[in-house]
Write a structure and sequence with these properties.
single chain; 26% strand; three-stranded antiparallel β-sheet
């Protein structure tokens, strides 16, 4: 996305990725887009496929005490979100770069930063044909995730890592079945949390709270369905539509922020700079917010020849990052059962959920956070 936005401003870039395009397109990931990020795709000219193949969601269901309580985003804040898998977003952006003659190198190896604090930093790597390459540039954007090389290149004496590990994870499954509900269902139960999400009309993603070191081999399909059904069961007879389970995985929970987000000619973006629990659907949206802010800041830095303009990026991005950390933490702790939870804790959680679901003020707070209207990044 950043390369696309910079190209729109007449600024050249080189994108490198250690995976092949086929490998990325075969990875199924969540995709809840805030309305502003849907517009970013469309209005920047990247793609309008989301308008034809995406699904607009005007709310979510909070399910607790055996009943569903709809949080109507449209009625509360006049906004919505879009269900559009990350795989499709990637394909749209990769097609846009190819269509516009962008320089994207897939399947590279041996990536290494060269003089990131200097006036002409570089990335060295071996391309997919086995040739050693080095790209000298004005700015390196480290968007290589939490395990990439760029985060570790931030000098230890200048960086501060803020992190929190959670005492639970999500057991996620891909299910070949029709949707069980029109919108996403966030379920609180005495057994723990469950999320009933979607991917396509025939492929669904579902999660239930589990221990971080849970062994997927201990969970045959019948046991998984019994657990998921138990966590959403209620007096209204709501039940999940079952089908073959095509994938099982455990997703650990963590929160992380790196400050600052710039060192010389290196800036961090996306998961390289911050991660959030997935409960609030903020990870992808924060990464796109970084791209939007960086496009503005990098363009002005290059136009003026003043690289210190890059100093604006971190504070602007972090305002939204910390807001999203708060919202994601709030959603996570409100809905998940702590390992040492007592009866008091469960009753308190249900009281909090009732306060959100039955109060215009509480429901509006959730709607603003979920749709991105409560974010101060931009």
């Amino acid at each position: 996305m950043l390369a696309h936005l910079l190209a729109n401003a007449g600024i050249e870039s080189v994108v490198i990725d250690n995976r092949t395009r086929a490998a990325i397109e075969a990875t199924h990931r969540a995709g809840i887009l805030e309305d502003r990020n849907m517009r970013l795709l469309v209005e920047s000219g990247a793609s309008d496929r989301i308008l034809r193949h995406g699904s607009k969601h005007a709310g979510i269901d909070l399910r607790f005490g055996g009943h569903s309580h709809r949080i109507d985003f449209s009625a509360l804040v006049g906004a919505a979100v879009w269900l559009y898998p990350q795989t499709e977003i990637f394909a749209d952006l990769a097609d846009a770069r190819e269509r516009n003659g962008g320089d994207v190198r897939f399947g590279v190896t041996d990536t290494r930063l060269v003089d990131p604090a200097g006036d002409r930093p570089a990335m060295s790597f071996t391309d997919s044909d086995g040739h050693a390459r080095e790209v000298r540039c004005e700015v390196i954007v480290g968007a290589d995730g939490s395990r990439g090389v760029c985060r570790s290149a931030m000098p230890t004496a200048r960086r501060t890592f803020f992190h929190r590990a959670y005492p639970f994870a999500w057991f996620g499954v891909l299910v070949a079945a029709p949707p069980s509900a029109a919108e996403l269902v966030y379920a609180h139960s005495d057994r723990g949390f469950a999320l009933i999400s979607q991917r396509t009309p025939s492929l669904q993603r579902m999660y239930f709270q589990c221990d971080p070191d849970e062994d997927v081999s201990r969970w045959p399909d019948d046991r998984i369905w019994d657990e998921l059904q138990a966590r959403v069961r209620g007096a209204d007879d709501f039940a999940l539509r079952e089908g073959p389970i095509t994938d099982k995985s455990v997703l650990p929970f963590r929160s992380f922020v790196c400050e600052p987000m710039r060192h010389g000619g290196l800036v961090l973006a996306g998961d390289a700079a911050h991660t959030v629990p997935p409960t609030g659907a903020k990870g992808l949206n924060l990464a796109l917010a970084d791209a939007r802010i960086l496009a503005d800041v990098v363009e002005r830095a290059i136009r003026t020849g003043d690289r210190e303009v890059l100093d604006e990026y971190g504070p602007r991005a972090l305002a939204g990052v910390w807001r999203a950390q708060y919202f994601s933490y709030w959603m996570t702790t409100m809905l998940h059962r702590a390992p040492d939870a007592t009866a008091f804790d469960l009753h308190r959680q249900r009281a909090e959920l009732r306060a959100v679901a039955n109060s215009a003020a509480g429901a509006t707070f959730l709607a603003e956070g979920y749709t991105g209207l409560g974010s101060s990044s931009g």
